[in-house]
Backbone:
């Protein structure tokens, strides 16, 4: 390889995005098993930090609606239970049971995870470092494009089925 080609390759590698997709992050499922996030490559992912004892907990219904409406079209809706705001149940098993009984959830859920600060899950640290966004409360939403870029972030007050969020999801599915 010539010097110019080698230099071009080095620049191309240095210019590559920090993150290639959800497969770069390891999550553990609510059942305690590794999640195969590599399956989500090339798909939009809506990541939501959740809590069972929060005033926004009814949003689980709309997260499930998104999962059912757009899952077959490629969208992944990922619930990330967190006790960072002291509103989550004490164990993953309790969270799983609560969500099954009250919301009949079938969307993927992670184990209890930190979403803020230096102990936050690597995904949330990456989001904070690359965009400045850090969840300010439960049910904050991060929409990641099929290319692995943060498209938009939404606070708790934005319902999962709000037109502005749904239109962005549909735009990502159309890519």
Residues:
């Amino acid at each position: 390889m010539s010097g110019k080609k080698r230099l071009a390759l080095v620049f191309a590698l240095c210019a590559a995005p920090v993150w290639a997709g959800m497969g770069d992050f390891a999550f553990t499922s609510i059942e305690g098993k590794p999640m195969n996030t590599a399956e989500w490559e090339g798909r939009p992912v809506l990541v939501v930090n959740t809590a069972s004892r929060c005033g926004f907990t009814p949003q689980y219904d709309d997260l499930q609606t998104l999962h059912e409406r757009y899952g077959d079209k490629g969208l992944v809706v990922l619930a990330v239970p967190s006790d960072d705001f002291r509103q989550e149940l004490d164990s993953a098993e309790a969270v799983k049971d609560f969500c099954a009984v009250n919301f009949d959830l079938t969307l993927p859920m992670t184990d209890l995870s930190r979403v803020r600060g230096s102990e936050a899950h690597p995904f949330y640290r990456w989001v904070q470092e690359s965009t400045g966004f850090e969840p300010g409360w439960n049910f904050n939403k991060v929409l990641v494009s099929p290319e692995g870029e943060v498209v938009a972030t939404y606070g708790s007050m934005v319902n999962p089925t709000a037109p502005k969020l749904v239109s962005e999801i549909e735009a990502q599915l159309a890519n």
Q: What stands out?
A: Residues 20-174 form a domain with the Glutaredoxin fold (CATH 3.40.30.10). The chain has a mean pLDDT of 89.
